[in-house]
Amino acid sequence: MKTLEAQRSVHIGRVVRNALVFGNRRRTLVSDSSILDTVDHLFVLLGKRKVDYLLVGGIALLQYVEGRNTEDIGLILSPSSLAKLPEVQITDFAGGIFEGLQIDLLLTSNSLFEIVMRRYGTTRAFVEREIPCATVEGLILLKLYALPSLYRQGNLVRAALYETDLLTLIHGHQPELEPLFQELAPHVSATDLAALRKIVAELHERIARFGKGF
Fold first, then answer.
1. Long-range contacts of range 14-22, CB-CB < 8 Å, 24 or more positions apart?
2. Calpha distance 123→166 (Å, rounded)
3. CB-based contacts of 30: which residues, under 8 Å, 6+ apart?
4. How far is CA 132 from CA 4, 80, 149, in A?
5. Alpha-carbon distance 113 to 96, whole Å?
6. Element spanning 212, H or E
7. Structural domain boundaries of the chain?
8. CA 157, 162, 165, 171 torsion: positive or negative?
9. Residues 101 and 73 sit within 8 Å (Cβ to Cβ)
10. Cβ distance 16 to 101 under 8 Å?
């Protein structure tokens, strides 16, 4: 996993604290004064116990785009690695609580998550420490994979947020997308893949309109 120089000085604890203080706080039981210590303790434990993990979600996204207000700490890790963290209370199939702080858990028992962790990780320098973090391509894969489910659930607000994340990643970094569609193909239906290609084509049209102006 290659170490890259951070483009932005992202302080994970402060990002989470600001999002919770100015948000609705529904995702945490931790107090404002202890958020920084709680976030720091989480990553200290991950390091001390030699847990293999990859940071994803909104915090990882902030390494590549600006202006994303997020309280999401998302981690890809294996079930055996999760067993090294008995302090994390599992709340549902995709979540856990660590000292009152909500964590989004993506387990490598899902084959796409395992691929992202193995092929689409790097090391990024945050203010607190260097952390294994998803690449631009890894984040795009995860956003695309999640979109069909969000639409089927009728979660249009979150789907729109994910599409905006995709727009900013594609516009800002211009990654090769066809290899990502090929990577994604075995993990979604042909119908969903076609719909995702259409969404990305529409995002490219929006980017082109932005470049031309009105």
1. 14/127, 15/59, 15/62, 15/70, 15/71, 16/59, 16/70, 16/71, 16/73, 16/101, 18/69, 19/69, 19/70, 19/71, 20/71, 22/69
2. 21
3. 38, 99, 100, 101
4. 10, 18, 27
5. 17
6. helix 190-212
7. 3-134, 137-212
8. negative
9. yes
10. yes
List the structure tokens of 77: 């890790």
Strands 121-125 and 88-92: unpaired
Measured CA to CA, the distance from residue 94 to residue 56 in angstroms comes to: 13
CB count within 10 Å of CB 60 equals: 29
* Whole-angstrom distance, CA of residue 158 vs CA of residue 164: 10
The pTM of this model reads: 0.87
Architecture per CATH, domain 3-134, reads as: 2-Layer Sandwich (3.30)
Residue-level pLDDT, tens digit, the chain, 214 residues:
443 443 557 887 777 777 666 554 445 555 566 788 888 999 999 999 999 999 998 889 988 988 666 667 899 999 999 999 999 999 876 789 998 888 999 999 999 999 999 999 999 988 878 999 999 999 999 999 999 999 999 999 999 999 999 999 999 999 999 999 999 999 999 999 999 999 999 999 999 987 665 5
CA torsion sign, 97 to 20 to 113 to 53? negative
Tokens of residue 211, six digits: 């470049």
